[in-house]
Design a protein that fits this description.
With 549 residues, the protein is an alpha/beta fold. It is built from 12 helices and 17 strands. Residues 55-66, 421-433, 480-492, 525-534 have a biased composition (Basic and acidic residues).
């Protein structure tokens, strides 16, 4: 995927939450076109950082609204991964803080329900809202959601190749034993027309169950193969991935969902340990055979970065499981959703109005960035999104002072995808007015009271929960207690002030960030208001992380 990046500069912080859930009325348009070719490049887009022009210049390019200068656009491939948050929970419970590089903000936010309105059929609903966070900043949430799977309707069959790590490191409790439980769950949930194969790898890779339909005794053969799995020695991840894709390609079923499901701690230590070589093999099978990857991580020591790169290159998703509850969520609730498709190569672009917006920053999606001019180039990879999925992204937005009490347009959020059946491109968009970002304060309480003072119209508890998740991720990325966060390159508006002498570019914390104790209380409050157990769990994890710092 061709990426477009901008340097994080201290002081230019704007958080927009693009979330695939729905709430509130939509003000959007739905577009379909038959071209599918690349959009015209915005004038001046070749200057400066990739995809950017000087703020305030006339934008152009695509012959459709909205248009905005390239440096006031933010573009990324959709992502529904949640592994980063699941792994952080396990690490904190184990008495340690996660490494900052394993904390991906979008995966924290996407781990929580947002309650968005869903569309019927394929494609997306687009919703947006926001609230003030203080000092002239607002938090904007844009939500994308796909329709739920109709469990009564027939679905196309799946051909799944399970690639299992049986190396010595998988002997630790919560690794191979958990993988075996997960596969038993999958055996119960998959349909009789589905096919599965089972590949194991340690020092070498071996196909222990060739591609087998689950009717006519196939389900029992799968259970028998799983029961015999035992941990062995080293981890030749490259061999396992190659054998798994060879099985999937050799038994590819036309008209079916063909997917490799990798279950591993992703700690390669023998054979081909070059990540780039493994990644190239994954990408070639995706391009040649349309085989996608679903990566499931296990273990307290976990190769998070490699698993994420494998899933990104394989047009797939990642999840992390540390217990039977999470295994059930992944293999009983989520795996069926990952079999069907609602959208191929889905991308989002948010175009901010430079007459209204002074600064913005997309929070997260650093590894999913797309060059602005590639938004409508359907040769550039996006994300594969199944039924029942939601995508959430946050933008911190600073409106120009004169625009804070107006109804002017602040941004337009557009999602583009290819129809999973005919592969024609489609789009849906929603305009966000400035007033939607300034009507209330993010931590306001029912009845209009606000912890920050001033006007305080009631804010959606789901927006507040998303904010808590994002701020908590930023807290975990901090280099030291109370210090600035370790950020990678981030999509943001131009013309930010230079970082103070001795500081590191990208070290600015999010605007309006509450202290961790307040975040814990806000999560608990959402749990009380909504009965959401995931919010209560987040509150407990924040409390534990505070004690570890």
């Amino acid at each position: 995927m061709r990426r477009g990046w901008s340097r994080w500069a201290v002081g230019a912080v704007a958080v927009g939450l693009l979330a695939g859930c729905s709430g509130g009325a939509e003000k959007n348009t739905s577009l379909a076109d038959d071209g599918g070719g690349p959009a015209a490049r915005a004038p001046g887009a070749g200057g400066g950082a990739p995809g950017y022009v000087k703020g305030g210049e006339e934008g152009g390019g695509a012959d459709r609204e909205p248009s905005a200068p390239a440096d006031f656009r933010s573009t990324f491939a959709l992502d529904v991964d949640t592994a980063s948050y699941s792994y952080a929970k396990r690490t904190v419970r184990g008495g340690a803080l996660p490494e900052p590089g394993t904390v991906r903000t979008e995966e924290f936010v996407n781990s929580f329900p947002q309650g968005y309105k869903r569309p019927t059929g394929d494609g997306f609903s687009v919703t947006a809202d926001g609230a003030r966070t203080g000092d002239g900043w607002s938090l904007m949430r844009v939500g994308l959601a796909t329709g739920q799977e109709n469990m009564d309707a027939p679905r196309k069959p799946a051909a799944l190749t399970f690639v299992l790590d049986v190396s010595g490191s998988m002997a630790e409790p919560g690794r191979l034993d958990l993988v075996k439980d997960a596969l038993r769950m999958a055996a119960r949930e998959l349909g009789p027309k589905d096919s599965v194969s089972l590949v194991t790898f340690s020092g070498e890779a071996e196909t222990v169950l060739p591609m087998t339909r689950l009717d006519d005794g196939g389900r029992q053969r799968l259970r028998g193969a799983v029961a015999e799995l035992e941990p062995q020695d080293s981890t030749n991840l490259g061999a396992g991935v190659r054998e798994g894709y060879a099985q999937a390609a050799g038994h590819r079923r036309a008209g079916a969902t063909n997917r490799v499901v990798l279950l591993s701690d992703a700690l390669a230590n023998t054979g081909d340990t070059d990540a780039n070589e493994i990644l190239r093999g994954v990408e070639s099978h995706r391009k040649e055979h349309g085989i996608t990857l679903f990566g499931v991580g296990v273990g307290s020591d976990y190769g998070d970065a490699l698993m994420e790169r494998l899933a990104n290159r394989g047009d797939g998703h990642t999840a992390y499981i540390s217990g039977k509850k999470e295994a059930r969520e992944v293999f009983v609730e989520r795996l069926p959703r990952n079999i069907g498709l609602r959208a191929r190569d889905a991308k989002a672009q948010v175009a901010f109005d430079p007459e209204t917006v002074e600064r913005f920053r997309l929070l997260g999606y650093e590894n999913r960035a797309v060059a602005n001019e590639d938004f409508r180039d359907d040769r550039v990879d996006g994300g594969e999104i199944g039924p029942g999925h939601t995508v959430t992204a946050l933008y911190a937005v600073r409106l120009k002072e004169a625009a804070r009490d107006t109804d002017g347009r602040a941004a337009t959020a557009t999602v583009r995808w290819l129809d999973p059946g005919n592969r024609k491109p489609r789009e849906k968009a929603r305009t966000v007015d400035a007033a939607e970002l300034t009507g209330g304060e993010i931590w306001s309480k029912p009845g209009g009271s606000s912890e920050g003072g001033g006007k305080g119209e009631e804010i959606s508890p789901r927006l507040r929960l998303a904010a808590v998740a994002a701020y908590f991720a930023d807290y975990l990325r901090a280099r030291e207690p109370g210090g600035p966060a370790e950020h990678t390159e981030t999509q943001e508006s131009p013309h930010a002030p230079e970082p103070p002498e001795g500081d590191v570019a990208g070290a600015s914390p999010l605007p309006g960030a509450p202290p961790p104790g307040a975040l814990r209380a806000h999560a608990a409050r959402v749990a009380d208001e909504t009965g959401d157990r995931s919010a209560a769990e987040l509150s407990r994890v924040i409390g534990k992380a505070m004690r570890l710092k």
